[in-house]
Write a structure and sequence with these properties.
Elements (H helix, E strand, L loop, with lengths): L5 H20 L9 H4 L7 H10 L1 H16 L3 H10 L1 E5 L8 E6 L10 E3 L16 E3 L4 H14 L4 E7 L2 H17 L2 E8 L5 H13 L4 E5 L2 H13 L6 E4 L15 H4 L3 E5 L7 H6 L10 H11 L1 E2 L7 H8 L3 E2 L22 H20 L21 H9 L2 E3 L5 E3 L9 E9 L5 E10 L8 E3 L26 E5 L8 E5 L4 E2 L9 E2 L4 E3 L6 E3 L1 E3 L6 H26 L4 H4 L3 H17 L9 H34 L14 H24 L3 E5 L6 E7 L3 H24 L10 H24 L3 H32 L6 H6 L1
Parallel strand pairs: 3-4, 5-6, 5-7, 7-8, 8-9, 10-11, 23-25
Antiparallel strand pairs: 1-2, 2-3, 9-14, 12-13, 14-15, 15-16, 17-18, 19-20, 21-22, 24-25
Length: 812
């Protein structure tokens, strides 16, 4: 203590007394722009504030923080600025976020707020240039922070978050912007609570219950540290773990919240911090500070006491208290070496937030003054388009130059102010990680640059992030899990859009991305796979010749056709034999020819459908079959007439002969021909690719176009068949030697049975199976006619030739 100069002691003692007088009788100045923010600090009396200021350890930290800010102004540039500009730069005591640098002219006439540059005010209301025309800042507005936090949330694909906002402009305005931007980005808000440092226990309990019961894993807190601390303490006491906390820049580096006792809750916190860069020579400047060098700065001594944990002896009021104090405290001597205290957190200049902003503030003013004083050689003119009168510099003129300043600082970053007075918006992204000793480390893991390309604004090293519990996998926070592929979202009535159910896509649709809001219909030539996440080429299906059923039907058709031809040849060879002539040999040849053609018609139904095949096959089948049925009907009528005209020269005898059967056959066939021609001319069948009958298949088939014609054709054929059956049934008991009515009855019974069975079978099947049913009906009905009518005669002609004589027939 004896080493301290007496003059230094006396001067310091007077300065401390003056400081105590100021603290006890005058509140620190606060910018009027932050009166609304001051409300968030709490409602306390002036005397309580003074007492708290002098005794609270928190205020000691604030005091130390103020020292950190103040010493930066003692750099050479700021002293040079003060000398050259005839302007004094003074810093208000920053009790809250709204501390500003005010410019005062040297005349002593104070013009408050004529030029204001803040290094820590972020509230967006200050962007209003009508209300705050001369306000600028070197930290970005909360508008940018809010938009950046939403982009941070989207980066991690969180769409279900809770918000805690501090009461007041800072928290409420910032969180409102977040809500608006979140809605645009598709993020839903699970809850939005307003918190305060002075909240009641009931209010804190309510907020805690909301957080506990909410399904939101991620909670964004837009607040200062004092407002966050009560609820975080309550959450810690209630052991509510597993939440991810997103911090605004006001508490992202809070020493109060980053203590070991809260690390289990807040470990893994990620948030924004005001962008900072290394300032070359700043740490060396801090180490060079000494109270004896800066005798006019009272804060240097307070800084000295905070660093070394000592007290200056001349601060004690009397000798008695001095003697008693000596035994209780370490006395500052001035010989302490800051190099030995360089481990103190104060000297970790890379972790300090404000110095970089203050540094840019000082340089902005310096460059503005340089441009003002260098006019016109600098090329910078005043707002009136002329150089400023250096003998009468007005603050409004300086404001113009500050607004238009643009320079590159020592960290190679471009500094300027936009129309709202904001600098280039940049934020560091910090992650709270637990160190080996249990302390919290603010690890920089990314950067938000608002002026970068939209896709490159957020740059994050995901691998460097440690979440709660030291996990590296990003936690999820969604109201409903994403719908897997093959499903789409269906919103739940009364719930946010982020809460939804997942339903499978409809038949023929896919969803090839998870989280799809709608399904996509596959093209007609494709069909979804079993998971309905991609379209596959459909299988083309038709009754091809290579298929086993086609081979079987073709073989059967060939055999029947061959038998029909053999029978026809036999009948031609024995054309004049009695058994052939017994029932109109010409009709027999016509019937055999028609049966042969009917068998051949089945080949029109096999193979890939074409326009020509679709036009011909049903019409050919209908006409040929009517020829068959008409021939049978004519043969039946011939039998009936022959046995009815037993007396010559009667009316019935005039009908005997080939004329009536021939006319009947021609007329019956002509009706069917007319039906088919009308069908082909008005509504011709055509080939189609049926994609609706069977999933995953394209069925190539013929569309009848107008089914009425098809069923009229079948109905007419059925009418002739039923008529033939009735007539044959009536004539079945006539003499056997001249009567084939019995065989016609059996053939018509089989014929009608087949086509009556065909109708329900045809209607109940689709695709190639319907074609198979029709081919089977053609073969079976034609075969029944061939077998029932002609097989007995062929048997007699081949194996019983003696029965094929006139004498035998007469004897019978």
């Amino acid at each position: 203590m004896d080493n301290i100069p007496d003059t230094f002691k006396e001067e310091r003692k007077k300065q401390i007394e003056q400081l105590q007088e100021i603290v006890l009788h005058q509140k620190p100045q606060i910018s009027s722009t932050d009166e609304s923010l001051n409300d968030t600090v709490g409602r306390v009396t002036e005397e309580e504030e003074q007492e708290e200021f002098l005794t609270s350890p928190v205020r000691e930290k604030d005091f130390l923080n103020h020292v950190k800010r103040t010493v930066t102004t003692y750099k050479k540039e700021s002293h040079l600025l003060a000398r050259n500009s005839a302007t004094e730069v003074k810093t208000q005591f920053p009790r809250m976020k709204s501390a500003v640098l005010q410019m005062r002219d040297i005349s002593g006439t104070r013009k408050p707020y004529s030029v204001q540059i803040s290094y820590s005010s972020t509230v967006s209301v200050l962007n209003n240039k009508i209300q705050f025309p001369s306000f600028l800042r070197t930290v970005p507005s909360d508008d940018f922070q809010s938009r950046g936090l939403v982009k941070l949330i989207k980066h991690f694909k969180w769409n279900w978050i809770g918000i805690l906002a501090e009461e007041g402009d800072y928290g409420e305005m910032g969180s409102q912007i977040i809500k608006e931007e979140a809605v645009k980005a598709g993020t839903c808000i699970a809850f939005h609570e307003i918190i305060s440092a002075t909240s009641s226990a009931m209010k804190i309990q309510h907020e805690t219950n909301v957080i506990r019961t909410s399904s939101a894993t991620v909670i964004l807190v837009f607040s200062n540290s004092p407002a966050v601390l009560p609820i975080i303490n309550k959450i810690s006491n209630d052991n509510i773990a597993g939440k991810v906390w997103i911090a605004s820049e006001a508490w992202s580096t809070s020493a109060v919240l980053s203590i070991k006792e809260l690390s289990d809750i807040l470990q893994g916190t990620i948030g924004f911090a005001v962008h900072k860069r290394h300032i070359a020579g700043f740490k060396e400047f801090l180490i060079s500070i000494h109270p004896f060098k800066h005798t006019g700065d009272i804060f240097t001594e307070i800084f000295w006491e905070q660093i070394f944990g000592c007290k200056w002896p001349y601060g004690v009021q009397n000798e008695t208290s001095l003697q008693s104090s000596v035994h209780k405290m370490v006395i500052c001597s001035g010989k302490e070496d800051l190099l030995l205290a360089s481990h103190h957190s104060f000297f970790d200049t890379d972790s300090l937030q404000d110095p970089y902003s203050i540094y840019n503030t000082v340089y902005a003013v310096a460059h503005a003054l340089h441009n003002l004083l260098s006019c016109p050689s600098s090329g910078h003119l005043s707002s009136k388009g002329a150089c400023t009168n250096l003998t009468n510099i007005q603050s409004s003129q300086l404001l113009h130059f500050i607004k238009n300043v643009k320079f590159t600082n020592a960290a190679s970053e471009i500094i300027f102010f936009d129309a709202a007075g904001n600098p280039p918006p940049k934020y560091d992204i910090l992650n709270w990680q637990r160190a080996a000793d249990g302390s919290t480390v603010f690890q920089k893991v990314g950067l938000f640059d608002y002026l970068a390309h939209e896709d490159e604004q957020i740059v994050i090293e995901d691998g460097s992030i440690k979440w709660n519990g030291g996990k590296s996998q990003t936690p999820t926070s969604v109201c409903s899990p994403e719908c897997i592929t093959g499903h789409r979202k269906v919103t739940i009535r009364g719930q946010p859009v982020c809460c939804f159910d997942c339903v499978a896509c409809s038949i023929g649709e896919i969803a090839n991305e998870s989280g799809s809001t709608k399904c996509l219909k596959c093209p007609d030539s494709q069909w979804p796979n079993s998971n309905q996440d991609k379209c596959l080429t459909r299988t083309v299906e038709f009754l091809a010749y290579e298929e086993p059923v086609s081979i079987a039907l073709s073989t059967c058709t060939g055999v029947c056709c061959l038998l029909s031809l053999i029978t026809l040849i036999i009948f031609v060879k024995y054309f004049n034999s009695p058994i052939v002539r017994a029932n109109n040999n010409v009709l027999s040849l016509i019937l055999l020819t028609a049966l042969t053609l009917s068998f051949l018609c089945t080949f029109l139904f096999i193979g890939r459908p074409t326009v020509q095949l679709c036009l011909v096959r049903q019409a050919a089948f209908g006409i040929v079959f009517v020829v068959c049925v008409s021939s049978v009907l004519a043969k039946t009528i011939t039998v009936v007439i022959a046995f009815s005209a037993t007396k010559p020269h009667t009316a019935m005898s005039t009908w005997v002969g080939p004329k009536v059967p021939n006319i009947l056959g021609v007329c019956s066939t002509s009706v069917q021909v007319f039906i088919c021609i009308s069908w082909l001319l008005t509504s011709p069948p055509f080939p189609v690719a049926n994609t609706k009958t069977y999933p995953g298949k394209i069925i190539l088939e013929c569309n009848e176009n107008n089914p009425v014609f098809f069923w009229v054709m079948l109905g007419y054929m059925g009418l002739l068949a039923v008529l033939s059956f009735v007539l044959a049934f009536v004539a079945r008991k006539l003499p056997d030697s001249f009567n084939e009515a019995k065989f016609i009855t059996f053939s018509m019974l089989a014929f009608v049975s087949v086509w009556l069975s065909f109708i329900p079978a045809y209607l109940s099947t689709q695709g190639k199976f319907a074609v198979v049913v029709e081919i089977f009906a053609v073969i079976f009905s034609s075969g029944s006619l061939l077998f029932c009518i002609f097989s007995p005669k062929v048997y007699i002609i081949i194996f019983k030739p003696f029965m094929n004589t006139r004498e035998y027939l007469i004897r019978k």
